[in-house]
Amino acid sequence: MQVYLPIAEISVNAFLLLGLGGLVGILSGMFGVGGGFLITPLLFFVGIPPAVAVATSVNQIVASSVSAVLAHLKRKTVDLKMGLVLLIGGMIGAGIGVQVFNALREIGQVDLLVTLSYVIFLGLIGALMFVESLGAIRRARGATPKRRERKKHNWVHNLPFKVKFRTSGLYISAIPPLLVGVFVGILSAIMGVGGGFIMVPAMIYLLGMPTKVVIGTSLFQIIFTSGFTTMMHAYTSQTVDIVLAVLLLIGGVIGAQIGAQIGLKLKAEQLRILLALLVLAVCLKLALDLLIQPSELFSIGEA
């Protein structure tokens, strides 16, 4: 069944889009990721223009993050003060990212920027996850090594403008979380991702936040930054396709339930290495599309 996407200006099989949303939902349920860094390149593969794919995929991130944050709020594992600082940075970064996105769209280079960004980030993340997963599997098979204690203080704690974050048990400068928020906001606007795959490691290893409050605080920031990014794209470039967003969301909700059941049957190390291989496969496909000459060439020139 073909459905016309008014903003993308193409007709796509509705079941294909439901399937893509379902696939990302399964991955979300299995691996605990938002899926924004996978749904956007998958939309490229089915012919959705990158500008529309980026602006529309953020909607799914907002919807999936809201229910997760509500659960974390009940468990009191959301640092609202830290989330507010990250959110301020995220809003600033999203505004910058949307302006860069629109400027490159005007000169016809936004597709190249988005694709290159995905190749770089997916390649780095996939490689790091793969190496870490192999190490975890080896450790699980061998003797359990001594746990290394993470340093409680680093250069972050010596910066000015310190703020007490009671839920996280931290007394650190507001500058690092503000900069993390700015960077994630830029990524959200340019790549159509929530940025959790960057924010979560930064909050743990750079800011020193306890792991139990990292996920909820990250999702709290992602909801508002992604929502702001969506509105900015809709207002400035009109690239948010509501029909596409609804189909992806329906598929994602169904797929997440299936993925959660599958995830219960696999070990954590197996889940991480499967996700790493999937990320690397998507990265390789995008890189090949950039390097291999297309079968049909188009050029604009004077007769």
From TrEMBL:
<dbReference type="GO" id="GO:0005886">
    <property type="term" value="C:plasma membrane"/>
</dbReference>
<keyword id="KW-0472">Membrane</keyword>
<feature type="transmembrane region" description="Helical">
    <location>
        <begin position="178"/>
        <end position="207"/>
    </location>
</feature>
<keyword id="KW-1133">Transmembrane helix</keyword>
<keyword id="KW-0812">Transmembrane</keyword>
<keyword id="KW-1003">Cell membrane</keyword>
<dbReference type="InterPro" id="IPR051598">
    <property type="entry name" value="TSUP/Inactive_protease-like"/>
</dbReference>
<dbReference type="Pfam" id="PF01925">
    <property type="entry name" value="TauE"/>
</dbReference>
<feature type="transmembrane region" description="Helical">
    <location>
        <begin position="83"/>
        <end position="104"/>
    </location>
</feature>
<feature type="transmembrane region" description="Helical">
    <location>
        <begin position="12"/>
        <end position="39"/>
    </location>
</feature>
<feature type="transmembrane region" description="Helical">
    <location>
        <begin position="213"/>
        <end position="235"/>
    </location>
</feature>
<feature type="transmembrane region" description="Helical">
    <location>
        <begin position="242"/>
        <end position="264"/>
    </location>
</feature>
<feature type="transmembrane region" description="Helical">
    <location>
        <begin position="116"/>
        <end position="137"/>
    </location>
</feature>
<protein>
    <recommendedName>
        <fullName>Probable membrane transporter protein</fullName>
    </recommendedName>
</protein>
<comment type="similarity">
    <text>Belongs to the 4-toluene sulfonate uptake permease (TSUP) (TC 2.A.102) family.</text>
</comment>
<dbReference type="InterPro" id="IPR002781">
    <property type="entry name" value="TM_pro_TauE-like"/>
</dbReference>
